[in-house]
Amino acid sequence: MKKLLLLAVVVALSGCGTIITVPIDSTPASKDKATLILYNEQGFTDDFQLVVDKQAVGHISPETPLKVQLEPGSHEMYIELPQFIHMVIRRITVETFEAGKVYYRKLVCRIIPFASDVRIEPSDKITSYTVRSHNQ
User: Fold this and answer.
1) Main-chain phi, psi angles of 65, to 5 degrees
2) Strand 55-60 relative to strand 66-70, pairing
3) Each residue of 91-107: pLDDT tens digit?
């Protein structure tokens, strides 16, 4: 009975979905602007929004990395989750970007009661990542 219960819990926690490989286009978007590639390999199904200099610039999901052009210089960035705005600590990142370069960043979520946070962390160059797709 314990083994059956354990198996049921494992199946429930794994959820439905298929493991997919998500390619990343690392081509610079412009010679005059910096290219930021932000990806979410943790598989959270929530819709995350990247805010740069207090303006929403795009959405990110596990299946779709975000690629944006930024003016060279210093920018303030954070991730916003409108549905959990009062429950998530906003981690603001300030970075300086150079024209013609590609910057890789990953979204990192830590979900725990009363102290959850979502932040942007530096990443090495990658060409793809694997994630569980709930849309397949």
Assistant:
1) -70, 155
2) unpaired
3) 899 999 999 999 999 99
